[in-house]
Amino acid sequence: VFTMLVVISVLAGILHSTGVLISAGALTAMEVHVGAALVAIPFAAWHIIARRIPARAVDLSRRSLLRAGALIAGAGLAYAAGEGALRVLRLPGSARRFTGSYEFGSLEPSQLPATQWMFDAVPQIDPRTWRLTVHSGAVTREWTYEDLMAFDDRVRATLDCTGGFFSTQDWSGAWLSRLIADETAAGSLHVRSSTGYDRRFAIANARRLLLATRLGGVALDAGHGFPVRLVAPERRGYWWVKWVTEIRVDELPAWWQLPFPVQ
To answer: What is the 3-state secondary structure (H, E, C) of 185-245?
Structure first.
């Protein structure tokens, strides 16, 4: 099983990186690549535990270190050769972003895929009863949808999804700095979705984080985060929290979270 999962992960990675097959139905090659690798981890751990080999002095010998260095150098050369071949053969993979993602529907809001965290379902939210609660120091304020629609701060930002695509779009709404009472407070901004999904940011980022109500000048739809979603320029898509209901300035540092969401 472990070998099969490794083979599937490697093949899916090759298909994605070359652009020969980016997606098949609802699944992308990147999702298969990552998914197979994650499923393989418990099998790898079991194999290591069941066939434990005690550390030996020879493992740290000069010869072993030279072999490891040669292996790393060989892998680097193979990668460079592969990237060069993609450009020479003009395969789709040569147009990948540095993250490995492919451009999709930039500046065409109707073409932007609607994606969400694997355990989230798209909520149906009534804007008449929805409220955004902002806790900032001793001040707590609730904002209505109409309140936030009155703002027209704008940013052009690239959403780079870990599913393997990126798309540059025009977003409008309110900078988070408008909504919090003290931008100099210690701690972090804790942004939470109606689904329970959340991310933390340094308070210093408040002027660069947009609470978006519109995409391409049009109100967001449910799949893209209606009523409001976070736009976090220069961050991967999993930082762009959708269906935001609460923002809290608290004393925990921004790094007080796992690097990738697990909830």
So the answer is: CCCEEEEEECCCCEEEEEHHHHHCCEEEEEECCEECCHHHCCCCEEECCCCEHHHCCCCEE
Region of 119 (left: φ > 0; alpha: ψ -120 to 50; beta: rest) is alpha
Q: How many angstroms separate the CA atoms of 245 and 228, rounded?
A: 8
One-letter identity of residue 182: D
When computed from its CA atoms, the radius of gyration of the chain, rounded to whole angstroms, is: 22
- For 48-164, strand residue ranges (E) read 102-103, 132-136, 139-143, 153-160
The span from the CA of 10 to the CA of 194, in Å, is: 36
- Whether the upstream peptide bond of residue 123 has omega within 30° of 0, thus cis, is no
CA distance 17 to 96: 8
Spatial distance between the Cα atoms of 94 and 254, rounded to a whole number of angstroms: 35
In tens, the pLDDT along 1-13 reads 889 999 999 999 9
Residue pLDDT, tens place only, 63-92: 888 888 999 999 899 888 988 988 898 888
For the chain, which domains are there?
Answer: 2-100 (no CATH), 103-250 (3.90.420.10)
Q: Please report, rounded to a whole number, the percentage of residues in the chain having pLDDT higher than 70.
A: 98
pTM here is 0.84
Could you give the CA distance from residue 112 to residue 247 in angstroms, rounded to a whole number?
26
CA torsion angle for 32, 35, 37, 39 (degrees, to 10)?
-130
- How many other C-beta atoms lie within 10 A of the C-beta of residue 204? 13
Which of these, 99, 245, 205, 216, lies nearest to 157 by C-alpha position? 216
For the chain, the 3-state helix, strand and coil shares in percent, each to the nearest 5, are 35, 25, 40
